[in-house]
Amino acid sequence: MKIVLGIESSCDETAVALVREDGVILSQALATQQAEHAPFGGVVPEIAARAHLANIDRLYTQAMSEAKLELSQVDAVAVTTGPGLIGGVIVGVMLGKALAAASGKPFISINHLEGHALTVRLTHQVQFPYFLLLISGGHCQQLVVRGVGDYVRLGGTKDDALGEAFDKCAKMLGLPYPGGPALERAARDGNSKAYDFPRPLKGTDGCDFSFSGLKTAVRLLIEKEVARAGKLTPEIIADVAASFEAAVLDVLNDRVSRALAIAQRDYPITALAVAGGVAANLAIGSSLRTLAGAHSLPLVVAPPALCTDNGVMIAWAGMERLLLGAVDDLSVAPRARWPLAELTPVSA
Ligand code: KG4
Ligand code: ZN
């Protein structure tokens, strides 16, 4: 059985993993930089690049020794070559190219988003074509995954990604970084009807999202409440968090339902798959489960550790490509921007 090494360094996680053809994860080593970026309330590219460089060799050694493998036993080296923070991407690409060159094994260039998109085929038996909602800190898209390298983008965000909206609202509420999980916790004690926030693009044509108007509404409301109450009380924080989450759920329901209907009209969709860090949100998960049921589809979500950035998803995307004979040469250049729709379909 084939074995692929995966390397990820496009945002704030440095990760190396080894995956076998039958989907068994042989090892995974990961270092998150959350603590380094927390004082700044967001990812600082310069700090990210340095931290990737400081950790990546150790993580590679750890992954190989946990799997008890030599590089000569690996069949290919798969690396995120974009999109992402270019300084970080370069660090992973340099290591991947060096390993491929030294071992003579094939180098496979992976689009980070394709890594997220194909993960559900490792964790569940999902057949093409399926619908994918990608909701992370950097990305927010609705896609039909027709095959490896074969993506149809139905819509995306016009401004902030959903995770980014969570992070920014959490920051305005004085909650710790990363804000998504903190905001979800705060929302549990709040009244979701306390504030009537806007539902951007709800009911309109198309499958796009927009979250900047919602973010602005939250900011104005906070300013008003601070002026009135003198400070943000735990009660106001909980109510704003719950009302924000309710607005997000409402928008997601509307936008995803519309995109799903279009996808099902045009393709024999097999599942509603969700990827990206925001998929860890329980309220969003249960609302999407209901939505999938209404469209007679199973909801497929990878476990949280495989929803957020990791090396396994890159190794698995590499495996899918290797099995189809799609390998690259060492001339591939790292890319900051690389929409999924620019990929070329790979067939057996
Ligand atoms: O996929 P990911 O780890 O990194 C990117 O590629 O962006 O996603 C991180 C994002 C952050 O914005 C974080 O706040 C959000 O996912 N997130 C959540 C939750 N857990 C993580 N947002 C809402 N609720 C959560 N429970
Ligand atoms: Zn990601």
Helices and strands, with pairings:
Blueprint (H helix, E strand, L loop, with lengths): L2 E6 L4 E8 L4 E8 L1 H4 L7 H22 L9 E7 L3 H18 L3 E5 H12 L6 E6 L4 E8 L2 E7 L5 H11 L6 H9 L24 H18 L4 H33 L5 E4 L6 H13 L4 E3 L2 H4 L4 H12 L25
Parallel strand pairs: 1-4, 4-5, 6-9, 9-10
Antiparallel strand pairs: 1-2, 2-3, 6-7, 7-8
The structure holds 5'-O-[(R)-(carboxyoxy)(hydroxy)phosphoryl]adenosine (KG4) and zinc ion (ZN).
The site of zinc ion (ZN) has 4 residues, from α4.
Can you walk me through this structure?
The structure is a single chain. This protein is of the alpha/beta class. The chain has 2 domains: about 5-120 and about 305-340, Nucleotidyltransferase, domain 5; about 130-300, Nucleotidyltransferase, domain 5 (2-Layer Sandwich), CATH 3.30.420. The chain has helices at about 35, 45-65, 85-105, 110-125, 160-170, 180-185, 210-230, 235-265, 280-295, 305, 310-325; strands at about 5-10, 15-20, 25-30, 75-80, 105-110, 130-135, 140-145, 150-155, 270-275, 300. Strands 3-2-1-4-5 form a 5-stranded mixed beta sheet, sandwiched between helices. A hairpin with a 4-residue loop joins strand 2 and strand 3 (about 25-30). Helix 4 crosses helix 11, helix 6 packs across helix 8 (about 235-265) and helix 8 runs parallel beside helix 9. It is globular. About 50% of the residues are buried. Bound molecules: 5'-O-[(R)-(carboxyoxy)(hydroxy)phosphoryl]adenosine (KG4) and zinc ion (ZN).
